[in-house]
Amino acid sequence: MRTSLVKIARIDSYLLGDDPSEDALIMQARLALDDDLKTDVNAQKSTHDIIICYGRQKLRQEIQAVEARLFTSAKHRSFRDQIKSIFKF
Amino acid sequence: METIEGPRALSRERRIEGWYEELFPTVCSYIQKRGGELDNAKELFQEALVIYYEKHAKTGFLPEKVEEAYIMGIIKKLWLRMNSDKKEMTSIQDLELEEPEKPVELQTKKLLMFLEATGRKCMELLQSFYYDGLNMKEMSERHGYGSERSVTVQKYKCLEKVRNEVKQRALGYEDFLS
């Protein structure tokens, strides 16, 4: 892998808690001294959060699509009738 | 319903449909008896499915009890949280719910839209690892890579691409905390 990807992989290992404790300590020491590294680590942490947001959004969309289908398709009429009877409408 | 491998055993869509068919009526009964409406039931059910899915993806967690009973436990806790009924809270011993999800900031929404439009393939790959919790073997199978090494390299390339976009937009970690 090219050098930039090796650096990405190292930061990922640290952020995901995969580093052995001594490596994590070394990273923390480097972060205290290297502003560029700190920027990269923060940006990568933000990137993880963006990916989680993306994944969650996709899951919600899938759930909503399934729910919409269950409440509209002819195939699931008995399911709809069951729910309607519970809420009495 | 099969629970041996949890939420990823069947296709996700089929799994979600199964949860609705088998559990949503019970959830509706629970909510209706406590004065809630269908919209409450829909909202809480969606939230519970997200919570359960993420717990499994993050930790490999599978409930000791029947899966439906576990999801029902999440629903009850969410309902109590929604209604702040402190008396009933003390009798529920189940899982601990994390703090409610904070609304997504506008900057993040814009970035997500951009990434969806320009880097969907990368985002799907990254989602598989960081959200769905797949290992490299599973990722190489899902995304059609010949080896774990090649999908690993692609994962880091995609991560670098998204990280560069984050840096350009100067999205700091603090933006996710506010």
Number of helices of chain A: 4
Order of helices and strands of chain A: HHHH
**How many strand segments of chain A?**
0
Give the amount of beta strand of chain B, in percent.
under 5%
Instruction: Report the uncertain regions of chain A.
Output: none
Shape of chain B: globular
Layout of helices and strands, plus pairs?
The complex is a heterodimer of chains A (89) and B (178).
Chain A: H1 3-15, H2 21-33, H3 35-70, H4 77-87
Helix pairs in contact in A: 1-3, 2-3
Chain B: H1 12-33, H2 38-59, H3 67-83, H4 86-89, H5 106-118, H6 120-130, H7 136-143, H8 148-168
Helix pairs in contact in B: 1-2, 1-3, 2-3, 6-8, 7-8
Question: What does this entry look like structurally?
Answer:
The complex is a heterodimer of chains A (89) and B (178). By secondary structure, chain A is mainly α. Chain A has helices at residues 3-15, 21-33, 35-70, 77-87. Helix content of chain A is 82%, strand content 0%. In chain A, helix 1 (3-15) packs across helix 3 (35-70) and helix 2 (21-33) packs across helix 3. The radius of gyration of chain A is 23 Å and the shape is rod-shaped. The model of chain A has no long low-confidence stretch (mean pLDDT 93). Chain B is mainly α and 178 residues long. Chain B has helices at 12-33, 38-59, 67-83, 86-89, 106-118, 120-130, 136-143, 148-168. In chain B, helix 2 packs across helix 3 (67-83), helix 6 (120-130) crosses helix 8 (148-168) and helix 7 (136-143) crosses helix 8 (148-168). The interface between A and B is large, with 40 and 46 residues.
Question: In a few lines, what is going on in this structure?
Answer:
Chain A is mainly α and 89 residues long. Chain A has helices at 3-15, 21-33, 35-70, 77-87.
Structure characteristics:
heterodimer; A: 89 residues; mainly alpha; 4 helices; B: 178 residues; globular; disordered N terminus
